[in-house]
Design goal:
The structure holds two protein chains of two kinds. Chain A is about 45% helix and about 15% strand. By secondary structure, chain A is an alpha/beta fold. In chain A, α1 runs antiparallel to α10. Chain B is of the alpha/beta class. Chain B is globular and about 50 Å long. Chain B starts with 20 loop residues before the first strand and ends in a 5-residue tail after the last helix. The chains are: A alpha/beta, B alpha/beta.
Chain lengths: ~260, ~280
């Protein structure tokens, strides 16, 4: 058993063994059910215990009912813990009157580093007109967009080709169904600016290893989705996978450092 | 030096820290749909268990999930014969259609004579009600023998629980059969609002860890209801054991509680089965 697998099997902190950046986390009460430990302070305690250096967060209010309030709360969390949290700006395309102002606020004032699309909860197509306004901004600023809810993979292929300066990070490696994995693998393998986030509650046996083998470890970023789910649960699939520790370290943090340009 | 040697609970590398894993939720055998790396025979399942340091597993036959108890239960016995790490669990269902045989007592005698000490039901896949008029006669027999009952509600994604889990029926079963250990399999992150009142009422209600992905969820159940309500499980070989293992081992609870959840709770249940 490798060093990192051993740490995962025994529940030992990753601190000093790997630089871990969680590319997909939230904060605040979950939508539709109770998720404990979702306050900023509680999240920091969990991250300390497990050995997570930084978490890239969007607020659950932002992907849910109020994106502006959620963005402000993330800004306050980042202000309080500047070395622990990195903010995603959530843009709800159903409020087109706010898009440019909110982008300006998030990136000029709030210091956010990337964008989160939640097309599934906001019920909006990835290539819809209002998301394109955000994509135009991301293209001009060379930003990363974490995308949950893709619609057809063909759409992602087309957009990744059209917006070459944007890094598209596919939430939950794009699928809850192993039988759609070939599509995920194909698009992530072919498009240089498409990456995968390792989070997702359904963890088919061997699924993570299979995807990493085919897309390459440089295309996968560790994400937990916590506090929607359990942080160590999603971390386990990386730590206990059959890939080398060198590749695990890339997935756990080095890839995020490079793609999100974290200092 | 351990990575977090400052943490007293991990201050030693010795076997004293070892947590043995006994998986309550595993299957053997082929399935209609197969994921790329999924395994189905004894040799490969044991090999996978070895790679995750899982000591033992309570297994039922995968074919039973759709085809019912026959012939999977019998095949399970021949496949696990001589393999003490795989502990057989038979799939049962209400016997109004005589799928367990003419006499339900004969069926349970056969179970016990085969040293089978746990039963699993699939109320969703097998299309039967958990009401007393449907399952009462089976539960009476399980209760009589204090034989653990595992309930699989066919949950893949946690959103399935909204439709699949019959909470009122779980309440009725636990209330009517208070000595019957009930283990709910693969409950997801969204169940606590229904689960907690039941855990507060019933000592005989348990949850397996295979998909209980609530953030800080293990800690909260241990604190509010006690670690005896949690049982380690994986969903192998369909689901990965990595998450449940990591979730348990990183949980912020004492080592003694981890051991209870990892194996001792299930071992105690199986040892408490009344064979006569």
């Amino acid at each position: 058993m490798s060093l990192l697998a051993g740490l995962g099997r025994e529940g030992r902190s990753l601190r000093r063994q790997a630089n871990v950046i969680d590319c997909h986390a939230h904060m605040g009460p979950c939508l539709g059910f109770d998720c404990p430990g979702s306050s900023v302070e509680e999240m920091v305690k969990t991250m300390d215990r497990v050995g997570i250096e930084k978490a890239c967060v969007s607020h659950n209010l932002a992907i849910g009912p109020d994106f502006k309030l959620g963005n402000r709360l993330v800004h306050e969390a980042v202000k309080k813990y500047p070395n622990r949290f990195i903010g995603y700006a959530v843009i709800n395309p159903n409020y087109p009157e706010d898009i440019e102002n909110e982008l300006d606020l998030c990136f000029r004032d709030y210091g956010m580093r990337a964008i989160k699309f939640h097309g599934e909860l906001h019920k909006y197509a990835l290539d819809g007109e209002n998301y394109r306004r955000v994509l135009d901004f991301a293209e001009s600023e060379s930003l990363t967009i974490l995308c949950h809810g893709l619609g057809k993979f063909k759409t992602l292929c087309e957009l990744s080709s059209e917006y070459k300066n944007v890094n598209f990070l596919i939430a939950h490696y794009g699928t809850w169904d192993m039988r759609t994995l070939p599509e995920v693998i194909e698009v992530a393998s072919k498009a240089p600016n498409v990456f995968l986030d390792s989070s997702g509650s359904v963890d088919w046996f061997g699924g993570f290893d299979e995807v990493v083998l085919k897309v390459g470890d440089k295309k996968m970023l560790f994400g937990s989705d916590f506090p929607w789910g359990n942080l160590p649960f999603t971390m386990g699939r990386v730590l206990l996978s059959r890939i080398s520790d060198e590749k695990k370290r890339r997935i756990l943090g080095e890839n995020a450092n490079a793609i999100l340009r974290i200092d | 030096m351990p990575a977090n040697s400052e943490d007293a609970s991990f201050a030693s590398e010795s076997k004293e820290d070892e947590v043995l894993l006994f998986d309550c939720n595993s299957t053997l055998g082929r399935r209609a749909a197969r994921n790329p790396r999924s395994v189905y025979n004894v040799h490969d399942l044991l090999s996978v268990m070895d790679s995750y340091s899982i000591t033992r597993a309570l297994v039922s036959h995968a074919s039973c999930e759709v085809s019912g108890p026959t012939p999977g239960n019998e095949i399970l016995m021949s496949e696990t014969k001589g393999t003490s790490r795989l502990v057989p669990c038979w799939v049962v269902l209400p016997n109004h259609t005589k799928e367990l045989g003419e006499d339900i007592s004969d069926f349970f005698r056969r179970m016990l004579s085969n040293d089978v000490k746990a039963a699993k039901i699939y109320p969703v896949s097998h299309h039967f009600s958990l009401s007393e008029w449907s399952v009462g006669h089976i539960l009476e027999k399980l209760d009589e023998h204090r034989m653990p009952l595992l309930i699989d509600f066919n949950i893949v994604h946690y959103s399935d629980a909204v439709m699949n889990v019959q909470w009122d029926k779980v309440h009725d079963i636990c209330a009517r059969h208070r000595d019957l250990p009930v283990i709910l399999l693969r409950l997801g992150a969204n169940v606590d609002r229904n689960l907690f009142p039941l855990l507060g009422m019933f000592e005989n209600l348990h949850v397996d860890l295979s998909y209980y992905t609530v953030n800080e969820g293990i800690e909260r159940i241990c604190d509010m209801f006690g670690p005896e309500h949690l049982i380690f499980g994986t969903g192998l070989p369909v689901m990965s054991p990595a998450g449940p293992i990591s979730m348990l081992m990183y949980s912020n609870i004492p080592l003694s509680m981890k051991r209870s959840i990892a194996s001792e709770n299930l071992e105690r249940m199986l040892e408490s089965v009344v064979e006569q």
